[in-house]
Amino acid sequence: MAPKTSGLGKKILASYDRLKDISETAESRHLLIPKKSWTYYVDRLVNLEPIPADNPVNSPEISIPKTAQDLYQTEEAEAVNPISEFVSEIALSTLAIEGRQRSEMEAFYLLCSIASTFVSSTALSFLLAIRSFSRFLSPILANECCDRAAVRLYQGRVRHSRTKPVFNSFEYPVRYALFDLDRAQHDSHFSADRAREAAGTDGPVFLLTIPTSVGYDQNPLKVYYCYDLGEEGEEEERWSLPRLKNCIAEVTNTPWGEKVFFEFAPGSDMVAKPLHVSPFMDMIGNWKIHASEPGDNIFISISVQHPTLGNYFIATLSAKRVHSSTTSLNMEKYFWLMPHKVAALIYWQAVKLWWKNVPFIGHPKYSNPSYRDDASSRCNEICPLRINRRQSNKLNQNSNGESRTRWCIWRDAEWPWA
Q1: Buried/exposed 209-219: b ≥16 CB within 10 Å, e otherwise
Q2: Where are the transmembrane segments (predicted)?
């Protein structure tokens, strides 16, 4: 079987020729892999084809890996001396090609997504303009209103600062909305009841988010503020006004659209990094989170604490309350193209980091499929969940009085990023 010729496969083809020569003398050198099996799986590997599990050339001497990644990680690669170095070389080369092909496909998906969003958002923007003009002609639309206290509007700035391996800093204006999920309708991933269940609270739930605009949603971070009414039956633990007890963060990576939901204590808390949010950051380290209670002002900061790079990155959101929404149409106009601006800035900063030669890091699901389990274990080992109750540092407890682990779930990306 002749190997396929490809500009990306020159290194693999060179290794293939060397391995073919060595395989002809495999029997005389008493190698652990039979000549027939060796030639077969090398041919399949060079052509980036998986080896079937029921392949008839499988032999008891060695278990043939099914993918290039399995080949590189398997212990048998060390057992086939003197050709193990070529096994490693061909495996690494194949992994590099597979990664390159994935990157090219993701770039194609991204361009298609941008084109589709441009067309749909343009059309919906025209419809928004027509609705805005129609409100002056229709008293029904003009009198349309909503509960002012259910939605609060904020305006502020987001700042990012990175110090290693190169310095990069930027900031941009942003607008947010704070929804009372018990009173205002919002297409959030969590209802008020679901958020209360996850956070272990019994009071109101507020969601800080950038609402969808003309059909497009871009929210790197949403925060659910979960309040507690106090424990019934314990007079010293009851209060007249709800108190902020727990928060839930919803973090989304771009452009994949994967999500992670985890709870954290208001004020200050730390979690092990649970999501690949940027191709210019690895999965090592922890997130130090500071979040104030929402009022006339909102402040959130997330810093990365890395074992070798130190505190090399911080992102902050500071915003002031401007007014409350009166109509859904005013909301749509207030947040017009806000998600698009956030997405454009994310991609622009990625281009700048690439131009500055910051190393590109692939998604960990290809190199470490269990990275989520690892993050969850690290989080509960080094960052136990704490609650903010009367400034105490008691471990969060369930109804039986036992300390519990931090709640955290993931949601996979949708097609075509899955």
Answers
A1: bbbbbbbbebb
A2: 107-130
